[in-house]
Amino acid sequence: MARIVKKFGGTSVGDVDRIRNVATRVAKAVADGHEVVVVLSAMSGTTNQLVEFCRAAAPLHDAREYDTVVAAGEQITIGLLSICLQEMGVPARSFLGWQVPIRTNDVHGAARIEEIDTKTLNECLAGGRVAVVAGFQGIADDGRITTLGRGGSDTSAVALAAALKADRCDIYTDVDGVYTTDPRIVPRARKLDKITYEEMLEMASLGAKVLQTRSVALAMKHGVRTQVLSSFEDKPGTLVVGEDEIVEQEVVSGIAYSRAEAKVTVVGLEDRPGQVSHLFAPLAAANINVDMIVQSASENGTSTDVTFTVPEDDLLRAVKVLESKKEELKYRDLVYNGNVVKVSVVGVGMRSHAGVASKMFDTLADKGINIQVISTSEIKVSVIIDAEYTELAVRALHSAYGLDAPVKA
């Protein structure tokens, strides 16, 4: 008997028929002798609708009341699943975040889990019942409902798996696992049987939308074996595990891309100690995350150009902040472009193999694709290119690193 946390996303619980399908999967796991905790998202589209209600009520609404509204979607799905399970003869009860309780900080709309009291859930499981928990939500010290941000149900599931010392956390989605790249761009992309936490974390942060970044970081921190699999097909998915569980390591595991990038270049910034710090301090104060940074060689020791990337949604805010600081920073010009994409090559095998970056640059050059910014880490190489070359770059790199699936006879 194993203790398993199963998380189902919005498309998996999109209507009552799909919720019955989830109940059937859960009932099978119970019949196999497992203890099961289920974490659910709201029905597909529900959270977006609730967010729009808040915006319509008041553009600058109280974040605490916003959380009260947007947390309502999960209450519906956990109640319906519990009803469906009971109808099948499977004892079950639902838990809202505050009933568990899942304790968080008080950053409403983007709360972080601080502690989970598992006493009530353990008692539920010991009594032979399935615990059906609302994802995405928790409770702050002042007793107010909090939410964990978009994709927060993944984080809820992994956090519960860690707290309950579960044997595995299954994340059910509308895809059947983690692929070497987006199958919509590369039809010959391969599904991976296993991927390391570090690779999954890089791919999630670089644009792969299979798992939420925070959930992967949490799984890596606590060693939670996590499986990504389909809600609609009964076949194995992809296991996200520690590096020691993967016997034969590929040099490159996948190609990720993100269209939600924008590039900013500060031209002619005065070249003196502390000036770059003064450049990025106001952006940090405005909660604008800066990613890739490149500083060009100084012009006669007097001025330099600094190029960096920000989320596309933050581009205009970043420009406004920097323009307001022009006299203080004494730069010559500000150039920005939201029509770019970040393409990344990811693989823990890079640690022990040379030439990965060189192959990436050669492949893009052969296709006539100009690289604007480069960033590297121990297990990834990322470049910024014009958005119009996204599909060409991803396909070319996927083939160059031998990731294409064999042609079926």
Protein described:
By secondary structure, the chain is an alpha/beta fold. It has 13 helices and 18 strands. The strands form four sheets. The chain has an eight-stranded mixed sheet, sandwiched between helices. Helix 6 runs parallel beside helix 8, helix 7 runs antiparallel to helix 8 and helix 12 crosses helix 13. The protein is globular. The mean pLDDT is 93.
Give short descriptive properties of this protein.
alpha/beta, 34% helix, 13 helices, 409 residues, globular, 26% strand, 6-stranded antiparallel β-sheet, 18 strands
State the helical fraction. Answer: 25-40%
The N- and C-terminal alpha carbons lie at a distance of 41 Å
Main sheet: strands, sense, barrel? 8 strands, mixed
Question: What is the number of beta strands?
Answer: 18
SS-based structural class? alpha/beta
- Proportion of residues in extended strands: 25-35%
Task: Identify low-pLDDT runs.
Answer: none
- Provide the residue-averaged pLDDT: 93
Shape: globular
Nearest-angstrom radius of gyration? Answer: 23 Å
Short structural description:
The protein has 13 helices and 18 strands.
How do the strands and helices of this protein lay out in sequence?
Blueprint: E1 3-8, H1 16-31, E2 35-40, H2 46-57, H3 63-70, H4 72-87, E3 92-95, E4 102-104, E5 113-116, H5 119-126, E6 130-134, E7 137-139, E8 145-147, H6 152-163, E9 168-173, E10 194-196, H7 197-205, H8 213-222, E11 226-230, E12 238-241, E13 254-270, H9 275-285, E14 293-295, E15 303-311, H10 315-324, H11 326-329, E16 333-346, H12 356-366, E17 373-377, E18 380-386, H13 390-400
Parallel strand pairs: 1-2, 1-9, 2-6, 3-6, 9-11, 10-12
Antiparallel strand pairs: 4-5, 7-8, 11-12, 13-15, 13-16, 14-15, 16-18, 17-18
Helix pairs in contact: 1-4, 6-8, 7-8, 12-13
